[in-house]
């Protein structure tokens, strides 16, 4: 687990921690207030090689492993969840699908810039009536004169409308078949749509509760035409492939949650030592000490679950249930630690300039993004063999 880190991984962890403390944290409040993606920070992350950590050097990557990516995401999330999710989604949902399922030509065209952090990409799955329920997908793509013609809309798509977004991968209905019982099964495929393609419109940024500097938009596709070779992976396997990316992505997302929980703990400990009431530090009060102890226990459990899953990815053994457990435990830890840290700070914890206030706003989406808490429970129950009655 975490004690199995190599010296190289420890150096990476420490390097990113220093960067998060010295560069990301001091700028977090300003960018959060302006609701802007900090391109200067993203560029530096690219120069550090963070966006290319799990990709081979031949595609501009660093040739590291998934544990290394999780270490980087965790350290960034301590300081700013928006920055951390920009990296996590940029790798897991933006670049990884092209690496896993792309043709050699697609990899050579798109991966180098993504791995260097010079470009971002999004994965457009969710719609107003479809997400986990892929069968309700309404976006369509039809072949016409050697081109895919895409029509429909998507929502809540991360890294989809930034100034450096180069593409989005879109799931769309590319055909239908009828089952023996008479019901219709939709054929879902994934198609690469470059930014700026005529008919592809990026809607205004959402007015979100948190993650203010994360780039998130609704998307519209109106007669968008892209070459037939922009099909990503095998036709009809778009959703099945996405589930594979999502299983991996949940582990990096769990690292983000763990980092957020750790960040709340560190801020609360600092305040408990330095804040004096009735002539003594508030940390000397048993209730505060017990609260901090519970926060530490949550972080510890979240980190163990996360890195067990990450090491299984590297080892090439099944990790589906481990990923869901890690995501479930760590997201709940982040939410609980954000609440407790805010309480320890009292009125100061209600000020947006305070990191714990931002963590409190940001943490709620951790129980929703990349599969809700309920979806994780459903997956775990199914993996335990209790599929009946689990919707």
TrEMBL record:
- Cofactor dependency: FAD
Family matches, as InterPro entries: Acyl-CoA_DH_CS, Acyl-CoA_Oxase/DH_mid-dom, Acyl-CoA_Oxase/DH_mid-dom_sf, AcylCo_DH-like_C, AcylCo_DH/oxidase_C, AcylCoA_DH/ox_N, AcylCoA_DH/ox_N_sf, AcylCoA_DH/oxidase_NM_dom_sf
Q: Which terms does the record give in the GO molecular function aspect?
A: acyl-CoA dehydrogenase activity; flavin adenine dinucleotide binding
State a single Pfam family of this protein: Acyl-CoA_dh_1
Chain segments annotated as transmembrane:
none
Name the domain of life this protein comes from: Bacteria
The protein's UniProt keywords, in alphabetical order, are:
FAD, Flavoprotein, Oxidoreductase
Give every Acyl-CoA dehydrogenase/oxidase N-terminal domain span.
Answer: 6-118
Domain named Acyl-CoA oxidase/dehydrogenase middle is located at: 122-224
Location of the Acyl-CoA dehydrogenase/oxidase C-terminal domain: 236-384
Question: Which family does the entry's similarity section mention?
Answer: Belongs to the acyl-CoA dehydrogenase family.
Recorded hits in PANTHER family, A to Z, give: ACYL-COA DEHYDROGENASE, ISOVALERYL-COA DEHYDROGENASE, MITOCHONDRIAL-RELATED
Name under which the protein is recorded = Acyl-CoA dehydrogenase
The organism's taxonomy opens as: Bacteria, Bacillati, Actinomycetota, Actinomycetes, Micrococcales
